[in-house]
């Protein structure tokens, strides 16, 4: 049986299982593998060459579907799981070894009113990827500098999300239940985003707030930016600002910009510059994934994602370049290069995120080069 036939048979079986009568079930995915070489990965001149999964886009697979309920009302669902294409293991950072669908898992209704969905879902901050110069997310994304803190876990467990488009304007509202006995606020998350797309212009902005499960710290992140197309080129500019208040006090800021260029129908080029700053720490700042104080890392939704070490004041500058060549509509090869120059606390946090603790480090210069292949289905 051909792969497409197998997928169709699997989709049909899912549609019929348990008496369901879904009018549309899709099996989809993306497989991305790359060989990456990084210099000075540990801050002490140790280089590493590795096969990585999700070099330019996340490796994943999933199911999504809908059922027509009449009167423009539809029931919808989506289940999505990360894949470590390098090992074949399930992969979703720090969300637990038993999490099968760590990327998305929700069910809901859509209609003239918009959509209302329930489950594990993307938070409002993901609108920032619409004005990320090098597109999407990749293995050494500059947004990760100093630890993966800006997006507060990217997703929210136990969440309700409302979304609606009004012509060129799109709105998202999200709320994640804390589910902590004695306090509805502890562990809770809420946020909102706006996106405006018309002609060559796209603008976006979002705010997200999460309270630690112990109630001691609150993390707040906002972002804003946009892009403007001029012929085959597009210019980007954006900003991210993350702050923790309460038992730990610290802030992180990043301003970024860049350009993408469609050189030929198959070849696209993009590049970006990212300026990062982090403050000194006050209070309970040295935390690890899973700590109740690690709200910037995603603890607002009872699932640790990301990393926050709080090594003190520091800054970093990152340049990243990507060339992508489409072999077909579903398959492409790419080449990526990046350079990170970090100082003081930002250097220590960055090394801690990628490799391990380096408390005496005051300066980091790292270069990375990656070549990869990706295919979607």
Attribute tags:
single chain, 377 residues, mainly beta, 16-stranded antiparallel beta barrel, 2 helices
Task: Please characterize this protein's 3D structure.
With 377 residues, the chain is mainly beta. The protein has a single domain (32-48, 87-93, 108-376), classed as Porin (Beta Barrel), CATH 2.40.160.10. 7% of the residues lie in helices and 53% in strands. It contains two helices and 19 strands. It has helices at residues 3-16, 344-354; strands spanning 24-38, 48-53, 60-70, 73-84, 89-90, 104-111, 114-122, 155-166, 169-176, 189-198, 201-211, 217-230, 233-246, 248-262, 267-278, 282-283, 314-326, 331-343, 363-376. β11 and β12 (217-230) form a beta hairpin. The two termini are 17 Å apart.
Output the helix-strand order: HEEEEEEEEEEEEEEEEEEHE
Approximately how much helix is present in the residues?
under 10%
Number of domains as seen in the coordinates: 1
Strands across the major sheet, in which order? 1-3-4-6-7-8-9-10-11-12-13-14-15-17-18-19
Strand content: over 45%
Instruction: Tally the helices.
Output: 2
Average pLDDT works out at: 87
Q: What's the CATH H-level superfamily name?
A: Porin
Shape: globular
How many strands, what sense, and barrel or not for the largest sheet?
A: 16 strands, antiparallel, barrel
Rounded to an integer in angstroms, the radius of gyration calculated over CA atoms is 21 Å
Strand elements, count: 19
Unreliable residue stretches: 1-7, 9-20, 287-307
């Amino acid at each position: 049986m051909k792969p497409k036939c197998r997928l169709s048979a699997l989709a049909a079986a899912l549609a019929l299982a348990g008496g369901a009568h879904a009018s549309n079930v899709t099996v989809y995915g993306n497989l991305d593998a790359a060989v990456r070489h990084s210099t000075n990965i540990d801050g002490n001149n140790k280089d590493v060459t590795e096969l990585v999964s999700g070099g330019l886009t996340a490796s994943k697979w999933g199911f999504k579907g809908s059922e027509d309920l009449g009167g423009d009302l539809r029931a919808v669902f989506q289940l999505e799981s990360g894949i470590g294409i390098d090992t074949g293991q399930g992969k979703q950072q720090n969300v637990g070894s038993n999490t099968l669908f760590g990327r998305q898992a929700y069910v809901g209704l859509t209609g003239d009113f918009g959509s209302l969905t329930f489950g594990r879902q993307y938070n409002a901050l993901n609108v920032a990827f619409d004005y990320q110069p090098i597109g999407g997310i990749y293995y050494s994304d500059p947004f990760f500098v100093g630890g993966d803190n800006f997006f507060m876990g990217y997703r929210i467990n136990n969440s309700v999300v409302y979304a609606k488009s009004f012509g060129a304007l799109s709105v998202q509202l999200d709320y994640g239940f804390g589910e902590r006995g004695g306090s509805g606020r502890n562990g809770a998350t809420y946020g909102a985003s706006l996106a405006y797309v018309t002609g060559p212009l796209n603008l976006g902005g979002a705010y997200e707030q999460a309270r630690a499960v112990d109630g001691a710290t609150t993390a707040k992140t906002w972002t804003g930016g946009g892009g403007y197309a001029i012929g085959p080129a597009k210019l980007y500019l954006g900003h991210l600002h993350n702050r923790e208040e309460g038992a730990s006090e610290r802030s992180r800021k990043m301003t970024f910009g860049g350009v993408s260029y469609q050189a030929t129908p198959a070849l696209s080029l993009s590049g970006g510059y990212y300026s990062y700053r982090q403050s000194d720490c006050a209070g309970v700042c040295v935390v690890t994934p899973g700590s109740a104080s690690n709200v910037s890392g995603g603890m607002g939704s009872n699932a640790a994602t990301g990393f926050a070490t709080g090594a003190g004041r520091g800054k970093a500058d990152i340049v990243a370049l990507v060339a992508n060549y489409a072999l077909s509509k579903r398959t492409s090869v790419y080449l990526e290069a990046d350079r990170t120059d970090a100082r003081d606390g930002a250097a220590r946090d960055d090394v801690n995120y990628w490799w391990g603790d380096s408390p005496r480090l005051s300066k980091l210069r790292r270069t990375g080069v990656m070549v990869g292949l990706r295919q979607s289905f």
